Amino acid sequence: MNARPFSLFSFLISAALALGLVLLVVSRPRGQGTATPLTLLAREGRRTMSVGVINDQEFVALDDLAAVFQLAVHEDSLGAITVAYKGRTVVLTPDQAIASVSGRLISLPAPPSRAGRRWMVPVEFISRALAPIYDVRLDLRKPSHLLVVGNLRVPRVSIRHEPLTNAVRLTLDATPRTASTVVQDSERLRVTFDADALDVTIPAFQPQGLVQAVRSVDPVTLAVELGPRFAAFRTSTQSLDTTTRLVLDLVATQTQTPSPAPATSPPAAVPSEAPIFGRPASAIRTIAIDPGHGGEDEGAKGAGGTTEKNVTLAVARRVKAAVEGQLGIRVLLTRDEDRRVPIDERPAVANNNKADLFISLHASASPKSATSGASIYVAAFTDTDQARVALAPERVPTFGGGSRDIEFVLWDLAQIRHIDQSAELARLLEQQFDDRVPLGARPFDRAPLRVLESANMPAVLIEMGYLTNADEEKRLASSNFQNAFVQAVLDAVLKFRDYLGAATGGTR
Hints:
The protein is an alpha+beta fold and 508 residues long. The chain is 21% helix and 34% strand. Strand 17 (180-185) and strand 18 (188-193) form a beta hairpin.
């Protein structure tokens, strides 16, 4: 039998199949006949291979394997079958459930079987005989009918569903360890894994008031469809040996039901195992992060080649992932790629999306190479600016006759009404940076910054450090610094949310 030439890394080059990194949820077939096909997943895409059942064992055709993996297959006059790949061989003998792999004997769950003019081998032949002689990693996931070809990141994800009092807990275990982010998107939570595809088992459970279903929406994303009683969620992540555990606590709305208890009785508390996060009346629903500069505007540049535009974008992406993943707060980036955004468009993105916070990220430069440290700025306004905002509201006619006062927002001075809250946010950021992010000689300051003046919400500008300082240039580009900076921002946002909630009763 001659192998048809077929290059593993050239199959599925069409666009449709290149999108075929799909998530598989299958079960093992029983009995005789045709089984669920085996899906081969490679960097270039996927293809399927037919699987048959013989005496309750799953088999694949040897010539199908030869075509995909460029194997040479030869049957001699005595009936022995030789499978060769780049000088390495596997020898099979009909009616014997063993094979010689480069001179070493291995066992198979069943001997080769002839089906018409084709030789069939157990599916385990791939992992036990072919993988040892092949020069690319072959990872057979038999329960999922999945064969991962090459070094793709395809974690096994298991999901457990646990009803609690007035809450539901979903536990997602990803093996090997795989990071993920959780974002609320309208009536669903989107859980996106840092992977190439998923090998996932989704349990069946009855739709109820908190969770309607869990579904796959793309190769690396699961969607938790939320029920009508959903009010809030909280996430936590643990590293357990080789597994990353993501716990999603979904909390129900508090409904009032008739009760003989006195009206003065306190309402029942939410159980401690499902703490409330993201109350419906949260003071912060959307944050706008502004990575400074971009495109042809590089901003500051260090001697080592680090540019402000790249540092700010890298940190902004980390902030977005952390805030959305850990706090469930929507985060907008004024740019998510290396492009120039006009300065007036940056606060406009926040205004148009009704953001509750605006944080502009920058890195500094100084003629003195020893200058270092982060600074947090809020906008500064003149007495004339204050007087313009304090002008009496304009009277306009109404449809029913008469007139009423309308307070117009002067967009170039919109920040004035939020300046006290902006100063509080800056104070909390300075507090959280302490011992985590090196601070400059003047860690808090006011300046007439155009990017902040039009922001119609609390807004700050953060200079993360000086790229003209050689040591600080290395620090700003390092993962350790960026992670510490992101955690400090996240903690400051939490404290600022509490501050707004205390000041406004939970609404903004």
